[in-house]
Here is the input.
Amino acid sequence: MQLRGTTGARRGRDSLVDMTTSTFAAPVLNFRRPTVADHLGITTSIPGWWGTPNSATLPLLLPRLFLQHFADTSTIVEDEGGELAGFLIGFRSQSQPETGYIHFVGVRPDQRGTGLGRMLYEKFFAEMRALGCTRVDAATSVLNTGSQEFHRAMGFAFEGDTDFNGVPGWVDYDGPEQHRVSFSRAL
Ligand SMILES: CC(C)(COP(=O)(O)OP(=O)(O)OC[C@H]1O[C@@H](n2cnc3c(N)ncnc32)[C@H](O)[C@@H]1OP(=O)(O)O)[C@@H](O)C(=O)NCCC(=O)NCCS
Here is the structure.
């Protein structure tokens, strides 16, 4: 799937779609399924894209198996030059077949605010609906306020039993000191 993007500051949630009919040249974004050959590029990008204190270790949360076993429900976005512009790694839960789960999403810093993250999520929502899912879950660090605001904008409810600076979260959710806020959204 190819879509024309936009340049400059934020253009609104539907901008990528609207611009497909634009008369002036705009960057083309190519959406495709990942392969294992994409693993190194994704994991190399994560530290710089996240830029959080723990970002050097974040690639460990995305081992190669995700591209071996969840490629059919994940998406890679490349710019006109074939450079990685964004990605979403998600899957349908085997244990909860009514649930889709988004494990990782990233948009290259210069591509943010253009609606690309929303587009990746809405594409995944549509794919999960088609499989019969009725909800999508995700989780993020209690410190990742950007991710929290993105999920709020995407209609997710926050879940947690402990207050982390005004955000509900779960203590030791993913291991010692790995506090998380979990999200859920009906489809
Ligand atoms: C979170 C991330 C994927 C958002 O991507 P994006 O392409 O900039 O998001 P969009 O432009 O599609 O924005 C979608 C909505 O989220 C909101 N949003 C996105 N980031 C936001 C932020 N940091 N603060 C407040 N709102 C934000 C937008 O305002 C927009 O709302 P609207 O559609 O109602 O106007 C991107 O910032 C990123 O890659 N961050 C680093 C990695 C990360 O933290 N990933 C999530 C945890 S796995």
Notes: Residues 6-22 have pLDDT under 50 and may be disordered. The CA atoms of residues 50 and 106 lie 8 Å apart. The first strand starts at residue 2 and ends at 4.
